[in-house]
Predict the 3D structure of the following.
Amino acid sequence: MNTPIQFTVNGNRQSVDVPPMKRLLDVLREDLHLTGTKEGCGEGECGACAVLLNGELVNSCLVPALQAHGSRLCTIEGVSTEGQLHPIQQCFLERGGAQCGICTPGMILATHHLLDKYPNPTLEQIQEGLAGNLCRCTGYMRIFESVQQAANTISP
Amino acid sequence: MSQSKPILGASPLRKEGRAKVLGAAKYIDDQSLPGMWHGATVRSSIARGIICSITFAPEIDWEQFAIVRASDIPGENTIVHLTKDHPCLAESQVNHPEEPILLLAHPDKTALLAAVRGVRIEYDELPGVFTIEESEAAVENNDAERIIWPGSDAGGTANCFKQYLMYSGEANETEDGLAAAFEAADFIVEEEYHTGAQEQLYIENNGVIAECNKDALGNVSDVCVRGSMQCPYYVVHALTLIFNLPEEKCRVIQVETGGAFGGKEDFPSVIGSHAALLAMKCGHPVKITYDRAEDMAATTKRHPSRTRHRTAVSKDGKLLGGTIDVAIDGGAYATLSPVVLSRATIHSPGPYKWPHIRVRAKAMATNIPPHGAFRGFGAPQSLFALERHMDKIAKTIGLTPEELRRRNFLGTGDRTATGQLLNEPVDMQHLLTRALQESEYHEKLARFAEENKHSTIKRGVGFASFMHGAGFTGSGERRLNSLVHLDVLEDGRPQILVSSTEFGQGTNTILCQVAAQTLQLPYEDILIAQPDTSVVPNSGPTVASRTAMIVGKLVERASHQILATLREQEDLPEEHTREQFIAAAQSYRAKHGSLRASVRYEPATKIYWDDELYRGDAYPGYAWAVYVAEVAVDLNTYMATVTRFDALQEVGLVMHPVLAKGQIEGGVAQGIGYALYEKCVWKEGRMMNNQMTNYIMPTSADLPPIHVHFEEVPSIHGPGGAKGIGELPMDGPAPAILNAIENATGIAFNTIPLLPEDIFERFTSFTEPAHGGSEDFDPTHLGEFLPEAVA
Ligand code: FES
Ligand code: FES
């Protein structure tokens, strides 16, 4: 009952043969060995599994593999280029936006999505934009700073 | 290159930060071993009862599974902490819901769910106790059926894991002093305070991978567990008993850990032992990772508490004497409850002078999964009670909360309730002044009182003053006898070897800063080894705000030792360049083969502690703090929100300002959750809301701006003058917030978590509050409610 599924992940065409209802999260982690996408809750609450699907932020634990067929995916592994940190990653690193780091991949993708929508977001827009991504370590303040600095770097 | 700018106090990049932002850091669930199987746990579906039968569903091919029962354990069936009451797997009786009974492993993870359901267990149910009060009642009524825990050789009695009796002086004299104080008092203020359980809610669930080797006779020769954890040597200790193996045959490796907060202090011993037993049985490496629901239902939480205060006060606001009775709910087994209770006991009198005080504390058994370590470790519970009570005293005698505290603060040269002389500078008066200024407390107090008259949104401000002891209690650090190695490798780079773990707080970074600073080398040159017990020495557990202060000091001393060796034997000058250091180290290594410094803990000053009487120097050092909360209570929704938070603390040298701020902010956020959001709903010992959808922690949209302020008064106990900060920020938010809510509404709430339904209930009922509160509340007065006079 496997189905062939094709999509583009971080610019690379991929095809996998998996049960159609397999979670995209598991396809990424198990079939493609992209373990940067994390599982925190498995029920769409924490955002640790967030990826960009055709540019939209989705929780990959809620997306069946079939739904990703033909799509363009971006995971944390696709944010940097050739080992060069993306400005968002650099700012998270400098400003203390990552503590234990388990929420960080999802948080960085959510930031990516937010800055696409609002290149110079207000604090409220940041708070709302990241509200689907839980972080238990930071209390979010360093993350807000990281996002603001990233915004200033990308669109000064 | 001699360092011109000190690295201690700067904010270099987090050591493992790059891997984390790249998504390249490997947590346990990101790893797998060749031939690895997956494990799962069959758990008790009832709270307490005798196991009558275990049957296996015929439709499943059990030949494919490895099955482990208690009888398979080669050594002792116990997860040892302080006493051996806690079985690794239940044998004939279960004592809490979700208690592990049987373990299963299979090559395919997806086969496990149905298999766990396919194990049918029948019980003969026994009556359970589910609250502190029910547990006490069973003892009082001699109700043998409800004595759920028999007592222990470690000081436990029926249904009670541990009791402490702490006096501020000789027992007789203190009792006499207390009698006289209550006789002479102008006011006697009494109240009872409650706190609920709290889930650590690290975003990475518990998980491990275990391997097991056997000798020619088929006996287990060695085991290895890697996983998400705080204290690798705790797991080693657990494995030695389970497998009856010497320490060196039990290897434990901590891998990148996605948050812990105490929740991965004692629990990894359980899941680690389980996976190792399955690996023994199936002959393959075995991974166990919990999903969120299992992690929340089955693993430890913060101890619920009840604290009763009775205080004698003079009309000019002097505390004359007090009695404090603390009770915590320990769950079904002792685990760490005695130590959590100890910290609750010692912190319960707070940063105040008490001429006479008596603290009685006990940890009661209930048929709930064992409660365990969570940031603050008993102190948040007893400080919540105290700081709410200080506001109640102030209100009763007609002083402001500020003035009452000012008249009773401890200062330099005073003695704490345990008799510890505060010989390092303490200035609570100044901390309070500054915290109130930074938060514009006085101005807001006046402004909100005016605005509240015309608004259905009632705003208020409140604060809490408190301290948190860093390091193990009393003689604990001496007993731990921590050891640290510092190697200089072939290329001349120093490598720190400690069992202290990184789980987000910044262990790797600050320890490398200490070494860099002391060795006069660039921070980037310093390496820190992965905590693998086959390589790193036991530098103690990563708990109790001890890493920066205690382990940091050991790294500093080890660095000095390396320098002394190189200066003596290789003529390394006092001020050296990086190149000179490398040359000297390599020359030394060429002659001796290696270069290592090993240092053991030595107290900076003489530490005296009496474990029997609970008297003496409770902690090597204290961090002191005043936290101010500003709240808004919406009378349409009955929702209380924190609208601004100011956290001022004196923590010695701030080693890394960015990390330190992050620690405080993260702790404050957890404290806000503790006060207003996070409620564990229990039914017969089982957590009913074990999901992130219905156990609510604050999101980025819920939190106010958190302003963090530091005062730096260097301490002799830590490297460069640092003290511990990890747990401190958990202590202050809850009482500050409830004090602010009382300021806003005029209603004293003495139980957390405080949810909108609780506020609604008090606003709409005219009955006395459930927990012995004594405020008169007439809702018709709310419109004109005026907070206490401005000081
Ligand atoms: S794992 Fe997908 S939202 Fe939590
Ligand atoms: S950094 Fe640990 S959960 Fe966000």
